[in-house]
C-alpha cells in the first residue's frame, strides 16, 4: 500500500509537469517561465530546490558521524550563497534581461569566457543532480524492501524526473515545486510532532540536551590555522561557489519584478537554513528511539537511518507522508538542477556554433530538450559510478562547487562591481584558478590549504593582475 501511494504521487507529479508543458510557447517560457512568477512561487522554488536529498539524508548523516561543524558547507554555506545572491547579484542580473547566467559572461567579457564558464557551471551540476538520483534509488530500494535494487531505483527515479522536466521546463519546475514544498513543510512538521510524542523522545528539548551532551553542537574549529582554513574553505566552497549557478539565477530571473527576484531568493535562503534543522532533529531522535537500529546503520550507511526509522516505527499514514515529502524534496531539486546545466549548454555553447539565420525558436527549443535527455544519461552513469565507489550524497553535493569557486565566482563578481575588470583579467582568472585547483587536487588533495580554496585565491590574483594589463580584443 505504501509503495502504491508513492507511485500515485509520482503519477500526479508527472501529470502536473505535462500540464505545465502546455504553457511553454518559446524558449523564454522554457528557460524562465516568461519572467512572470510571484513571490510565493519564487520562495517555494528557492527553498524546495535546495532542500534536497542532501538536506534530508546527507546532512543528518554527517551530523551523526561528526558534529554541527561538519555541516558548515551545507546548510550554512548553501544558505549564505542564496542570501548573497539575493542581496547583491539578483538585481543587476535581472536588469540585464538574460536567459542564462552564461549570457552575462559573453556580454561582460567575450565568447571564449562565456564557453569556458558555461562548461564549468554545467560540469558542477553533474555531482549535484547525481546525488538526487542516487537518493531516489535509495528511496525505491527502502520502499520495496530490497525488491528494487539501488541501481534499478536510480534508473526509475531518473526517468520520472526526466519526463516532467523534459517538456515543461521552468514551468514544470515552478508548478511541481509549489506542490512539493507544501508536502515537505506540512509532512515533516507533522512527523516531528509524532516523533516528539514518543516516550523515548518526549519533546524537542530532551533531543537537544542529549545531542549537546554528546558534543554534537560543537561548531567552531580548533584555534589552529589548518582547522580554521579548512572550516572557512568549507563555508566558502558552497557559499561562494554556489553563487554563479544557473539554477539560482533561473529562480531569480523567473520573477515578475526586481523586488521578487531579490527578496524571494533571500527569504528562500533563510527558510532553507531554518528548516534544515528538522531532518537533523528527526534523525537524532531516531538514535534515542531505536539505538540498535541506528548503531547498525551508522556502521553501514548513515544516510539510511531516517528512512529506516520511519519505516520501522511510524504508522502507515506517517510513512506515506514522509516518503512523499522525501520524494518531493529530491524531485524538486533534481528537476531544477537537471534543467539548469542543460539550458546553459544549449544556449551558451551549442547555439554559438549554429547558424542563427536558419535556427528558429522552435528548433532551438527541440535542441534544448535533446540536451536535457543527454545530460540525464550522463547523470545516471555518474550516479551508478558513485554508488559503486560508495560516495556519500553530502560529499557529492559538497564537491560539486569546487570548479565554480575556482573559476566562475571571481569573474562574475568583478564583472558586476569592478569597472576595470576586462577580458584579459577574466581569462587570467579562469586559467590561473583552474590550473592551481587541479594541480593541488593532484599533488596535495589533503593539504592544509584545500585545493579549491587555493584555486579561488589564484583566480582573484589572476583577475587583478590581468585587468591591469592591456585588454585583448573581444
Give the CATH superfamily of the domain at 2-97 and 131-340: Sodium/glucose cotransporter
How would you describe the shape? Answer: globular
Major beta-sheet overview: none
Instruction: Determine the CATH topology of the domain at 2-97 and 131-340.
Output: Sodium/glucose cotransporter
> How many whole angstroms does the radius of gyration measure?
22 Å
Low-confidence regions: none
Our measurement of the CA-to-CA distance between the termini, rounded to an integer number of angstroms, reads: 61 Å
- What's the level 1 CATH class of the domain at 2-97 and 131-340? Mainly Alpha
Q: What is the residue-mean pLDDT, rounded to a whole number?
A: 87
Helix count, per DSSP? 22
**Which structural class is indicated by helix and strand composition?**
mainly alpha
Oligomer: single chain
Strand content: under 5%
How many beta strands in the DSSP annotation? 0
Strand-and-helix sequence, N→C?
Answer: HHHHHHHHHHHHHHHHHHHHHH
CATH architecture of the domain at 2-97 and 131-340: Up-down Bundle
Helix share bin: over 70%
